[in-house]
Design brief:
The complex is a heterodimer of chains A (about 140) and B (about 140). With about 140 residues, chain A is mostly beta strands. Chain A has no helices and 9 strands. Chain A has a single domain, classed as Sandwich (Jelly Rolls). Chain A is about 0% helix and about 45% strand. Chain A is elongated, with a radius of gyration of 16 Å. Chain B is an all-beta fold and about 140 residues long. Chain B has one domain: Jelly Rolls (Sandwich). In chain B, about 0% of the residues lie in helices and about 55% in strands. In chain B, strands 2, 3, 5, 6 and 9 form a 5-stranded antiparallel sheet that branches. In chain B, strand 5 and strand 6 form a beta hairpin. Classes of the chains: A mainly beta (about 140), B mainly beta (about 140). At the A-B interface, strand 3, strand 4, strand 5 and strand 7 of A face strand 1, strand 4, strand 7 and strand 10 of B. Strand 5 of chain A pairs antiparallel with strand 7 of chain B, so a sheet runs across the interface.
Chain lengths: ~140, ~140
């Protein structure tokens, strides 16, 4: 039987792993996996910056905590220049990166830490959401 | 044993030049420049790549990853990562999903793999580049 887990959060600084600890209306959801978890089968992640600052970055997801050894996965990139004064730029939309057949060992009953980093340049505020499917 | 994931990144600032991917955001101390093949792993199943150009310069470029080292049973290996271009130096922006490249290359646990990326064609500014090795 599939199990799911989701957290989201904001990344506001470059080159720092930021823990994703919220779930929309849930300010502090539990990050303890139930005892039946043995594997992470799939990971989906979507991260997009507001590009209020010019530059370039890639986004790296880290899964860690007591439930699993640290695993880092690049999930996307972004970059650009600010438009000329008085000009607009079309919004940027990205769908979720999907890691199928992830096959990551986890220990059920322990806590998982999901964090993400925006490398190289601070592009403003990046919003991140990560879903995990397990068995 | 489950799969293992290792990632490195860097900024490419020069066209047609190797840029070693040696860092991992703030996790510098725990991430040696070259990636040790984890114990118990026998294959580099896939590589994931992504990049983010700042489009500071008009032009177009392609991007690729090079994998080298005694951690690979056959070295070097190459992976195309994508291409990008822009015709104005004010306002070009992009958000890019990571891409998976299946490989199936034998690896040697304990030995290391070095990653480098290149921007080829024209210099379109500074480009952040990241790559993840998926071992099984």
């Amino acid at each position: 039987m599939a199990r799911t887990f989701l957290v989201e959060g904001d990344i506001t600084a470059a080159d720092t792993f930021t823990a994703l600890t919220t779930r929309g209306s849930e300010a502090a959801p539990s990050v303890q996996l139930d005892a039946k978890w043995k594997k992470i089968d799939r990971v989906e992640a979507s991260i997009a910056p507001d590009l209020t600052a010019a530059g370039s970055a890639v986004f790296i997801l880290r899964l860690g905590g007591n439930a699993t050894k640290n695993q880092e996965i690049v999930v996307g990139g972004a970059g650009g220049q600010l438009p000329q004064l008085g000009s607009d730029v079309a919004p940027k939309v990205t769908m979720a990166f999907e890691l199928e057949e992830a096959d990551i060992d986890v220990s059920g009953g322990d806590t998982i830490t999901v964090s993400a980093a925006m490398t190289d340049t601070d592009l403003g505020t990046a919003r991140a959401v990560v879903g995990i499917w397990g068995s | 044993m489950g799969k293992q994931y290792r990632t490195r990144e860097a900024s490419i600032t020069v066209v047609d030049s190797r840029t070693a991917l040696t860092t991992l955001a703030s996790a510098t101390a725990e991430s040696p420049a070259n990636i040790p093949v984890p114990a118990g792993m026998s294959e580099l199943e896939s590589v994931f790549t992504s990049f983010g150009p700042d489009f500071a310069v008009v032009g177009s470029a392609n991007f690729f990853l090079r994998l080298e080292g005694d951690g690979l049973k056959e070295s070097p290996q190459f992976v195309p990562a994508g291409a990008a271009g822009n015709n104005v130096a004010t306002g070009g922006q992009a958000v890019i999903l990571a891409d998976r490249h299946k490989l199936g290359i034998g690896v040697v646990p304990g030995n290391t793999i070095g990653l480098s990326a290149e921007m080829a064609g024209a210099d379109i500014g500074t480009v952040a580049f990241g790559a993840t090795l998926q071992f099984k």
